[in-house]
Design goal:
195 residues, mainly alpha, Four Helix Bundle (Hemerythrin (Met), subunit A), 6 helices, 2 strands, 4% strand, elongated
Length: 195
Amino acid sequence: MPVFASGLGLVLFDFSFFVWIASEIFGAALVPRLRRRGAVRVKRDRGSRALITVAILVSMLSAFYFGYAGVGALPDWIFYAGIFLVFLGVLVRQYAIAILGRFFSLSVQIAEDHKVVDKGPYRLVRHPSYTGILITFTGLGLALQSLGAVLVLLLFFGISFGYRMSVEERTLLSGLGSDYASYMKRTKRLIPFLI
């Protein structure tokens, strides 16, 4: 039986999964809503939030199936690397959300006084909160000890968040103009110095 499915491994996996879900509920949904002030000037989600929601649900169900079925089984030690990446991804995402502050939203929108934020992780990448999700998804796939789980999570991430980043960048370019255009020239989209 794989490490994630029994004993202490199951407890550790369930705890890390709970921490991730709780961080999304509180850190990405409730807290930003409470601290938001000011009017929204532009709202152009173009279905990206719905796509991400469906992609996460489908990819998670598929990943769990692949993990329990042993599709592309990975060694036991990889479980611990995966758990570490889940926690690292949560930290990266929540740090990025905290730095963005009241400009963070689960939908694509621009506030009345919106400006380019280029401090903290935003010095290196334009979408560090999505970098955090990428790390978390990779960690979940590894914790499920399945190459199939890793691949399905990364595939759904690429499709849904790739679309979301495209929608966000077009919206921010049209709303913030040359400030955002110059920011795009000096930063990568998702992974520092690479992508």
